[in-house]
Amino acid sequence: VSRRARGCARRGRLGGEGAAMAGDGAEEEEDEEGEMPPQPNGFLPGKEAERGSHAPRAGAGALPEAQAMLPAPGSGVARAAPRLSRRRLAVLAVFSLYSLVNAFQWIQYSILSSVFVHFYRASYTRVDWLSMVYMVAYVPLILPATWLLDTRGLRLTALLGSGLNCLGAWLKCASVRQDLYPLTLLAQTVCAVAQVFILGLPSRVAAVWFGPKEVSTACAVAVLGNQLGTAIGFLLPPILVPNTVDNIDLMGHNISIMFYGTAAVSTLLFLLTGVVFDEKPKFPPSQAQAVLQDVPPEDYSYKQSIINLFRNIPFVLLLISYGMMTGAFYSVSTLLNQMIVTHYPGEEVNAGRIGLTLVVAGMVGSIICGLWLDYTKTYKQTTLIVYILSFVGMIIFTFTLDIGQLAIVFVTGGVLGFFMTGYLPLGFEFAAEITYPESEGTSSGLLNASAQIFGILFTLVQGKLITDYDPRAGNLFLCAWMFVGIILTALIKSDLRRHTVNSGILNTDVKAVPVDSPTEHEKNNTVLKNQSESAL
User: Fold this and answer.
1) Best CA proximity match to 103, nearest among 136, 134, 140
2) Are 135 and 452 in contact (CB under 8 A)?
3) Which of 39, 76, 373, 432 suits a disulfide with 294, CB 3.0-4.6 Å?
4) Distance between CA atoms of residues 327 and 148, nearest Å
């Protein structure tokens, strides 16, 4: 008999009176006391041999890995039934809001580039770096950030993201002086580091806190917060800080109002993060999370998780195709002003409004795509269709940009944003499905890193093509790469592992990934020890 079987039997004797089973959609009672009962342990493949177990292989009559992690019928083992916590909505709201502020802080410099060029007496290139630092910082820091998320947990990562966002906002308040450009660059760098602890969390927050019928919508809402921050960043800073070139003191005063307002909101959200965010809900929200909670954190290897992801061919294909699509979106957003002004001189204000239209339409697309996934679970089909429609939208945008009708550009820009931005939560959720049970934070972090790399490369090449030729040449360059992305997406095998577990079809080999932090696991061990002593 394997160690896992003996452990389950022992816990069955200790917890024979187990908790009553409730439905997947049941809400957690507010007056409920006590912690969730400790779950049966599970080991990574190969751990049994390392620990001296002589469990038979599946071919010799052993249960499949996922089934071995569940209590056998009639064993008396009490597994906490999946329930939905009321706190999940507050967690999602707080995360979305501080993600919004982080995105607002990213765009507030580039939308006011002419203002900051005059105020800091700096070149446009130096002001552009205040936005580019977000992309540059993300790539080298994403692996340490996802390691921290997987080994130290969701709460600490959320506090770091919100806390650094708050710190960067206050440093900006101290940089409102014409000779303090280096300090405002440092402040923006701190905000860029905060972004690393934010962008990879939507799918993790959704998976840990939300049930299978709402997880995709929750992920879309979490992504929506960042998009809404960009939209507000297009709209609000030009109102707060008009370009008063003749009155630098008034310009500095207006910049201070914007910075102090941002810092106050960031501080409030940091405090709310400390109050609202827990490592996980008291009860798992889904069967997939219940299985993962069975596994002790010491059996988890972050290095092995990365290796597993890069050995997963469907994920590698998604990693590349997602990077192409999102990188193209970043490039279009960055160079939109330049493209519009080339064909419509003097229309800088309308260029900003087109950018706002693109982002707002994308927010609607994100929500609709998330709801559709929760309803249909057609991950590959939806991802491929949205990819194709984004490609078609890019073609239409390219060939209608120079016809002299700005109203048409508003429409085609909105259509393009609807599908390109709607693709973002699709990529996160599809990755979570085909890589389960690997950490959602690691998979989405790698997707974002791919997007940043492609975004930098596409922006540099498309910008050069626009300068040397015209916007059509740059857009056709993006269309060619998006077509390659369609082919790669079509090649992805749709292996919906998480959905399979949530459906109760547990015939797959599940490698464990902890959702507990080490501190949480030590507490669970203490509870188990106390129960054992009292039973004996």
Assistant:
1) 134
2) yes
3) 39
4) 26
- DSSP letter, residue 145: H
Rounded to 10 deg, the angle between the 313-343 and 471-490 helix axes is 160
Nearest Cα residue to 451 out of 200, 215, 257: 200
Q: Which amino acid is at 107?
A: I
The answer to whether 498 touches 288, Cβ cutoff 8 Å, is: yes
Dump the DSSP string for 189-227. HHHHHHHHTTTT-HHHHHHHHS-TTTHHHHHHHHHHHHH
- Say whether 84 sits in a helix, a strand or coil: strand
What the block records as the tokens of 144 is 């340490």
For the entire predicted model, the pTM comes to: 0.65
C-beta atoms surrounding 298 within 10 Å? 10
8 A C-beta contact, residue 451 and residue 330: yes
Distance CA(435)–CA(379), nearest Å, equals 13
End-to-end distance of the chain based on CA atoms, in angstroms? 23
Q: How far apart are CA 179 and CA 10, in angstroms?
A: 69
Measured distance CA(267)–CA(131) in Å, rounded: 22
- Do 366 and 225 form a contact (C-beta atoms < 8 A)? no
Cβ contact 453:325 at 8 Å: no
- What does DSSP assign to residue 19? P
Residues 6+ apart with CB under 8 A from 46: none
Length of the chain: 536
Distance separating alpha carbons of residues 108 and 131, to the nearest angstrom: 9
Residue 405 has φ and ψ, to the nearest 5°, of -115, 100
> 510 near 501, Cβ under 8 Å?
yes
pLDDT per residue of the chain (536 residues) written in tens, 0 to 9:
344 444 444 444 334 333 333 344 444 444 433 334 333 333 344 443 343 343 333 333 333 434 433 444 444 445 567 777 778 888 899 999 999 999 999 888 877 777 888 889 888 778 878 887 888 888 888 888 888 887 788 889 899 999 999 999 999 999 999 889 999 999 999 999 999 898 878 878 888 888 888 877 888 788 888 888 888 887 788 888 888 888 888 989 999 999 999 999 999 999 999 998 888 887 777 776 776 665 555 555 667 778 888 888 988 999 999 999 989 988 887 778 778 878 888 676 777 788 888 888 888 887 787 788 777 778 788 889 999 999 999 999 999 988 888 889 999 999 998 888 888 778 877 887 888 777 766 787 788 889 888 988 888 888 889 888 888 999 999 999 999 999 999 998 876 666 676 666 544 444 444 444 444 444 445 444 454 455 45
Kindly give, in sequence order, each residue whose CB lies less than 8 Å from that of residue 123, ignoring residues fewer than 6 positions away. Answer: 117
Residue with tokens 């389950």: 8
Count CB-CB contacts under 10 A for residue 437.
24
DSSP label at 27? B
